[in-house]
Design goal:
Elements (H helix, E strand, L loop, with lengths): L1 H21 L15 H20 L3 H7 E9 L2 E4 H7 L4 E17 L2 E14 L2 E2 L3 E11 L2 E11 L2
Parallel strand pairs: 1-7
Antiparallel strand pairs: 1-2, 3-4, 4-5, 4-6, 6-7
Helix pairs in contact: 2-3
Length: 159
Amino acid sequence: MKVRLILAIVLTFVFTSIARSQEPAASPSPAPKPAMSRAQSQRIIIATEKKLWEAWKNKNLKLFRSTLSADSVMIGDTGVANKEEALKALEAPCEVKSYELSDLKVTFLNSSAALLTYKSTQDASCGGQPVPPTVWASSAYVMRGGKWLAASHQETPAK
């Protein structure tokens, strides 16, 4: 009885091994998409920041909704705001006559996080109050789902 049981187990193992060796090989996984180069990422981050400034000027909240990360944090003179609070604040009546970004520099913290620093000069008012004419700004960007998203922004009035 024991011999038959052992023989059955051995034969099952042998036939299973033979059957598996005759199965077609699994198709290889598709090659991973090549990572974006730092130069490409730098161009995208700077272009995205410029688009956000244009969106502010043109009161285009849709771009902010799609470009800010879900966990974004905005820091301003009134404190810290999450994405929803920042979007609400952007609804304030602002008149942006002009702006210019200069001294843009992207510093990569790793392959999926970067810090953009720059100077902005602007002629604008929000809620009837003039905004500082010159600020030093920083924006943190994170790579999520193959897209660079704005995760944080802060501005400091220049002296």
